[in-house]
Write the structure tokens for this entry.
Amino acid sequence: MNADRGRTVLGVLSRGGLIVATIGCWAHPLVAQSAPANDYWVYVAAESADLVHLVRFGPGGATLEKTISVGESSVETEGPHGLRISPDKRYLYMTTGHGIPDGKMWKFETGADTLVAAPILLGFFPATLDLTPDGLYAFIVNFNLHGEMIPSSVSVVYTPSMMEVTQTETCVMPHGNRMNPSGTHTYSACMMDDQIVELDTQTFEVARRFSVSEGREGPVSLTSGTSMQPTCSPTWVQTNPSGDLLYVACNKGDEILEIAIDGWRLVRKFPTGRGPYNMAFTPDGTTLITSLKQGAGVQFFSLPSGESRGIVKSSTTVTHGVEVTPDSRYVFISVEGVGAEPGKVDIYDIESLEMVGSVAVGQQAGGIAFWKMTTN
């Protein structure tokens, strides 16, 4: 990794231990951080195992607290993919990407982890989901992973009754859906169209489109067609906590784009490690964190400068989801692994960029959702 893209830290920190990590071309000892004073809880989905795990990180270290089997068929992998916690922390929403005839959305009570309502059918391969700030509506991208390369949609679900209200056609292979802080618009990435789609959460209609193709970044018409030769191949969109800037992970282009929402224009580009995939901000808005799916690592950016603070290696390959604690202290990263090897949940100290915990979970750990923080 080039020096101007930040330091690269190699190795895994063990509890109470001392290891040597490589930073640039020289060795540096990393001493384990003191145990956190609080307990932090996340749910993570193991897509190839039809499992959802509850992981806790606290004074006792990182532990696997519970494993929940999900799905309806014992002979078919249904693929839990997207996870999201309701604003009141009472419910866990989940999408399964496979099934007969296609994927579904589920609603569980957190803690008890019991099913609240029967799952409902959505489009083909429903993936990332997000909720309005009041928790009344869910917006789910129908990724259509195994179907023909035709425009797909975003499903809108009224969560109290678990009823699909509509499907809004957006683009080919929509992915990485996230809401702005006020809940007025939600944004999704079009992996094959090289576009970002802005959806109005009041009308459920497409409001604007933005091209993220290399050299052609900018607004495009609502009827703009498909490109099918993506140079960015965006996998994630995320607004900053103040809601005035939108960040796009170009998985193919190895960069993050910063877009002004009001002016609907490109502001900056941040070079990244290989294959930025998912992103999250610290709640205080000072740090942007991205998983590097092809790079088997995690990258940290300081804002507003946009400078890379460093790239830290993950415990295994194919990094995926990113969830930050409410106090901006730690970040949880789901890591898929390859083949039969277990997935992982890696935990990093955001200030020191050190891995402070890692837990093995089911295969292809992907969707991850922060549940709660408890003070001891």
Remarks:
- Residues 1-31 have pLDDT under 50 and may be disordered.
- The CA atoms of residues 255 and 271 lie 4 Å apart.
- The first strand starts at residue 8 and ends at 10.
- The chain is about 0% helix and 55% strand.
